[in-house]
Amino acid sequence: MDVKEVKRRRVFKNKTTVAKKEIARPWRQWVPYFFMGTVFVLGFLALILVIHSKLALAGRIILAAMVFAGAEYYFRKISNGPSSMEDEFSTLSDIFCFAIVPSLMIYQLAFRGWGVLGLLGLFLVIFTALIRLSLYKLYNPIHVKHGFIGIPVTITAAFIALVAQIFVPVDMTALNRVALLSALIVLNFLTVSTIPYPNPTDRPAIVIVATILVMAVFLQPPVSVWAVWALLCGGTIYIILAPIRSRKGGRNHA
Prior knowledge:
- Helix content is 76%, strand content 2%.
- The chain contains nine helices and two strands.
- A two-stranded antiparallel ribbon has the order 1-2.
- The relative contact order is 0.10.
- Helix 4 (84-111) packs parallel to helix 6.
- The longest helix has 31 residues, at 223-253.
- The chain has one domain (17-253).
- It is an all-alpha fold.
- It is globular and about 50 Å long.
- The chain has helices spanning 3-23, 31-51, 55-78, 84-111, 116-138, 153-166, 174-191, 204-217, 223-253; strands spanning 147-149, 196-198.
């Protein structure tokens, strides 16, 4: 038998072995796909509810999707590292569930009768999310390992979901609409800013408290009302004070 032929067969065998090893990943590396799929399904359910003008229930579904998104992040962190397929799947789920659906929700809630200005509020959330989830995947200005550059898109989505628990379209005055649009402009600016923010999911206590509050939102008043305001206050504190703490931590580390 020709020696070259033997070598060719060995190379083919080695390539096949490597491919099988890449496919046979540990079971825990497939767990994030369950959570990413759940986030996408919850986002689709929230979209159906928005179409039927059930904005409060759609907001609760978005909040529940945030819990699953946090679980997905945790399992991706303890695995051997995210793959390109996981990154793409996660990005698509985030854009759909935490950008497209919340933008439609806030449009139905406050900006539907505003014409072009209302469409600005609709596309503002989607456009900044696309910028963040595309640009910041490729370029991280200071490459923080345990935090974010700017606030994540889930913060804006949570804000919209919580506002939908407080107001209904008929109760939205012109002042409320202007204030809401101003808040969205600030949040979307922070989304694409270079301000460092710590990752709250790195602290188990914060994750547990946030999960309990999200579960409480599904309960009847007054428990749900207190949970909504607690989440809003916690998010406001995070947006205002977290960059200061993150910068102090960076200086101490240096």
